[in-house]
Amino acid sequence: MYAEYMTLLPVLIELQATHDYLRTIERDLTALPPDLAVLHAQIRAQDKRLGELDRGIAEGTIQVGKLTKELELAKRLEEHARKHLKTVDQKVKYAAAIREVDERERQRHGLERPLKELEARLVAAAKEQIEIKARRIEAQTQFDELHQIFMSEHENQVAARGELGKKRKILESQMTPAEVTRFGRLLSQRMGRAV
Known about the structure:
Layout: H1 2-30, H2 34-87, H3 91-153, H4 155-173, H5 177-189
Helix pairs in contact: 1-4, 2-3
């Protein structure tokens, strides 16, 4: 068993060095310059706001559907109460029918106002969503241009990252899957130092 570990040790050392180089390159490539970092933060904030708006619009649309159904029911009930009022000929029943019509009108008005407010909020949210999408496209285009320049300035690191990724796969292929898993677990537990 000791002999197996001794033959595996050079591979582990080489794999550790490869991971170290890859981590350094990833850190350099992800450490964006200030102008790129600002654009990246704007894009993330816009994505977050768009997600909130999407959820709000979806929930609002469902609520509008419910309120619309309730309003249509209230209108039908009010219309039925008005028809009933026309057919009543006794004073007592007439007073009760008027109270019912009044109640149905209040119910309809109570549903119309929140429905209009909700529809207005949905229109405003849709408008804001369109504006944010336009600003996001603009920011993303600007970010992509600047990021392309940044990546071209670090072309040697991008190439090295590809080569090191291939080397890592070759080294891992010389180990059993259990050893690769254990190595990965040690890397995560020991802050990148398995060997």
